[in-house]
Predict the structure.
Amino acid sequence: MKHPIRLLFLLLVSLIPPAFAQSNAAHASDELTSQLIKLHSGITLNYVVQGKADGPVIVLLHGAGDSWHSYQRVLPLIPSSYRVYAVTLRGHGLSDHPSTGYSRTDFAGDILDLLDQLKIQHATLVGHSLGSFVAQSVAELDQGRHIDRLVLIGSAPGAPSNPQVREAIRSEFNALHDPIDYTFARDFQAGTIQGSVPAWFFEVMVAEAQRVPAATWHGLATSLTSDEPAGALGKIQVPTLILWGDRDSIFSRDEQDALVKHIARAKLLVYPGTGHALHWEQPVKFSHDLLAFIAATPNHTANPH
């Protein structure tokens, strides 16, 4: 008899009850999996996805020097009834690291292409720091095709208004060379939090910052310190939740109030005693506030224009 092991395997598979097989397939689709997607620009992005394929969609964008791991403490707290995509931006993590192309328009174009290819509609788009600026640009350009809600964490209408912060970003990022020094990565990540986070998580985020090449940091030095016209925020018509830790060392309360002023349907929640990466420090509260916001703002009808 040829291939007896293969025949035995096929026999065993045929004996699995269909209901059991369907149950396992459904369970597998709920688990966190890592994927790659090639964009029309030629850039390949890495993302992780979890939850039921037909569930309400949440798309998560991380900050500078991070990756999808920025939401690693949040993902287990989001029910499997939601379809969650945590995307690693170009120049970071396991996504491609081009030598140029780090403007907000470049990042936003990547995300809009990803949303198109994955046929994502009626999504809640969440962005932290750099990711919040990308999310703003996506929402400004989207015109109701994909995004129903916007969540901005540690954000502002443009570059940091504090000239010392702006100059520190520009000078420190431009001075970097490969390989990225551990001390810089450690101190950079430590500067985004006010309280404590688990040691394992902090080490992951330090390692992710070291993974980002110097060319990306140089590009970010320009994109994060370039003024964007606040008037463009008036194009954002979806409900917007702004989350800010009152110990944020990068963006001020005045900048949060400016976001509320310029985005028509925005509201602000302040996290007392919390730093710039509030979802690192308070993942439970963040997840609760995110889900409550989604529940309170039903999907809108896409803009026909």
In short: The chain has eleven helices and eight strands. The chain has one domain: 31-296. The first strand starts at residue 33 and ends at 38. Residues 104-117 form the longest helix (14 residues).
